[in-house]
């Protein structure tokens, strides 16, 4: 199983020690900046910020690459679709479709936006334990009047935590399933549509069964919904606020 | 501590899983429940943790009836459960966080949660695994992490539901050693298994077949008085050897349960 996907990498870097609320807020700021970026120059600035943070975090680039790798095919599909489906100045033709210069430009921008989002998200999860992410989110959501909607900040935070929990688990299950199907004669190249069916139906079943099993395990360990405490009790310090301020200025200045 | 009377349980499809089960488990006991697959062992122990509720009859833990939902948090705190498949019970992405999940649900302060996590990791000898992903561990280590997650809730009783069935012999011995240490610390232990070797040092052995309890006695008495192969479970090798020696006329002073006892008997025959 590929346990490297969105995994936490133990460490004691400045980024590891930052309050999770600061890191989540920083992630939100950088996400908005990425989506507002409309030129390659702006995305180059995003890349510069990312590599600066990577340097500070002492995280190996391989960890980030491992987290992004499963999405590369999806990103390639986005790029190709944009290349061929956007009107503009034709570059070449394939099977009656024009590949346009505008399509290429939009495709590259869109793909890079997704890529950077994934890279920042994997940097967040690599330097913050899921439990700390949950605590950070819960503390940030607590002042909101969620009770009026019939949910609590604890429930929302637990949902996020479980989503993070399931990403590597489902990816690992998919790898096992794919190996099992290939060993029983599945040829993904010759019959891609058959392969989608052979993999997706059991995957849905695995996901539902696993969700049920985790629910039973949570119940047996006294999960009742509503209020929970946490192993971590982060305290917002001056250095955390200073780091957030410095990061915000850097993003605003460069992007 | 746990009182079960006239328990009957039907699966949602109507299949009868448990039929007229009566069982009382005292504080500090080491009880082994054995039986073939589908005999009702897991269904029975899931009633003790209020994961299943009786179709008929009564289950109580420390006097609290499992049929009343308001008692479930107290029941689940008193009776912890470790499942057969550890991967399906991990919640945390690091060992430390997974162990902390139960105490977090109890609303304990952060400092107390850390104490409990450290205590249970030390008891299980897994302090070195603190920041690793539980899924990256070996089978034996995974079961120890799952057990530590239950111990951190300071339960009075821990149920081990076939925790050794998927382990290699070395890991199995390690997990069994951990179970014995937990019992020696005063915790009530209910160990569900189909390997009777694991029952020889238990206080009581309960045999289940077709949803009913067919034997409930000291392990030695159960081995002597019941045809366990008829219930689809194998006798421990030492017991089988001891019985074969007795049939061949080399009768020891009692039925040997362990290799030490068998060796002692053979030495006395010389």
What does this structure look like?
The complex is a heterodimer of chains A (255) and B (270). Chain A has 255 residues and is mainly alpha-helical. Chain A folds into 2 domains: 1-129 and 235-255, no CATH class; 150-231, no CATH class. Chain A has helices at 14-17, 20-36, 40-57, 61-68, 72-85, 101-127, 130-141, 153-183, 192-220, 238-254, and strands spanning 90-94, 97-100. In chain A, strand 1 and strand 2 form a beta hairpin. In chain A, helix 2 (20-36) packs antiparallel against helix 6, helix 3 runs parallel beside helix 6 and helix 8 packs across helix 9 (192-220). The two termini of chain A are 38 Å apart. In chain A, 29% of the residues are buried. The mean pLDDT of chain A is 86. By secondary structure, chain B is an alpha/beta fold. Helices cover 37% and strands 22% of the residues of chain B. Chain B is built from 9 helices and 10 strands. Chain B has helices at 41-48, 72-78, 95-105, 110-124, 139-151, 169-184, 219-225, 237-247, 259-269, and strands at residues 2-10, 16-25, 30-35, 56-61, 64-65, 79-82, 157-161, 188-193, 204-209, 212-217. Chain B has a 6-stranded mixed beta sheet with strand order 6-7-8-3-9-10, sandwiched between helices. In chain B, a hairpin with a 2-residue loop joins strand 9 (204-209) and strand 10. Chain B is globular and about 65 Å long. Chain B starts with a strand and ends with a helix. The chains are: A mainly alpha (255), B alpha/beta (270). At the A-B interface, helix 8 and helix 9 of A face helix 2, helix 3 and helix 4 of B.
Helix and strand element order of chain A: HHHHHEEHHHHH
Q: How big is the Rg of chain A?
A: 21 Å
| Mean pLDDT metric of chain B | 90
Please work out how many helical segments of chain A DSSP would assign.
10
Largest pleated sheet of chain B: 6 strands, mixed
What is the average per-residue confidence, as pLDDT of chain A, rounded to a whole number?
86
CATH architecture of the largest domain in chain B: 3-Layer(aba) Sandwich
The CATH class name of the largest domain in chain B reads Alpha Beta
